[in-house]
């Protein structure tokens, strides 16, 4: 392309040549001003460049908090929109995982799905023979770790669209992998239990050297919780009515008696240097960390029933049969939403809380409590109702999964046109 444009006005023959009109435009300076490097990446390109971690219940503290810049679209001009919906016609018990490119699902029938997080296109689907997936795995720097009842698999090249699973671990004969996976540094933690009962292990596996496995033996009389809560270097697991406190650096642990009535169904989560626990009477207690003893203190928070809990900072949330609540860590109630349906807290960001009510999902504004948007997740079959088992927040998306395999994605960039 020429860097100069010359325009001559020479169609009037009678004009002397010296009077011929000429316009010269020099483009060289303007061309040099265009810098390709200054073109901003699209939203998808920014996400694809990220190293993303994803854990069961948001993070290793199991408090349902997802670090995200997602905002509630305030006002009548904006709202949430469904960006895609797919039906996998499969059964799921565990939670949604995601990395920079895919939503990752694993089913009870042994199928593993890698679904484009922007379009909902199923890029990869394969059944791993003789495996059942019931617990939730991990994503560490976009690398995916999935656990079946017997094995742990790694998918390390999904960014290159290579989906060959690498088998990292097999539970000993007679044992099942009992918990969802959790992480402390380069170590993956999980529990496994003898199918005949009585014996279990807390297992630590180094992801840089998967053959390096450490087992801490446990004795179980009644029940072993299927969740591991990690706070700093310590891992906490409820066993019977006691608490396992395990030091992941020194590889030492002991069973501690606790002064509250708890069982394997109690919620145990970590937030702001406190370990929280719900009791069988639906009270919420806390333990300051680092701990000197395991005498939990009462927050003063009690509900008739607690089906879910979460937190960030000094904000505590509980889901109940009659709605959901927000408290400060002092026990002061900030907000109470009353409902005729059971509300379950699925995920929390700084601006939005995601609540499920059987087959309905609700996004509530944590800056203006009176603002919320709700959607029904409908079944593909007549006279059949869906049940939401997982809803997670990632960047600007909320991914929702039902037990029968409906996956929907919502974003907050809908523009409402009013005529």
- The total of helices stands at 2
Overall pLDDT, averaged?
Answer: 91
- Overall, the morphology is globular
The proportion of strand residues reads over 45%
Number of β-strand runs? 35
The CATH architecture comes to 7 Propeller
Number of domains: 1
Q: Which CATH top level class fits?
A: Mainly Beta
Low-confidence sequence ranges: none
Description:
- This protein is mainly beta.
- The protein has a single domain (36-415), classed as YVTN repeat-like/Quinoprotein amine dehydrogenase (Methylamine Dehydrogenase, Chain H), CATH 2.130.10.10.
- The chain is 3% helix and 48% strand.
- It has 2 helices and 35 strands.
- It has helices spanning 28-33, 43-48, and strands spanning 4-9, 21-26, 78-87, 97-98, 102-106, 111-116, 122-127, 138-140, 143-147, 151-155, 166-170, 175-177, 182-184, 187-194, 199-206, 209-219, 229-231, 234-239, 242-247, 252-257, 268-271, 274-278, 283-288, 297-302, 308-312, 315-320, 323-328, 333-338, 344-348, 352-357, 360-365, 372-376, 388-394, 397-402, 406-415.
- The strands form 9 sheets. Strands 12, 13, 14, 15 and 16 form a 5-stranded antiparallel β-sheet that branches.
- The two termini are 48 Å apart.
- The model has no long low-confidence stretch (mean pLDDT 91).
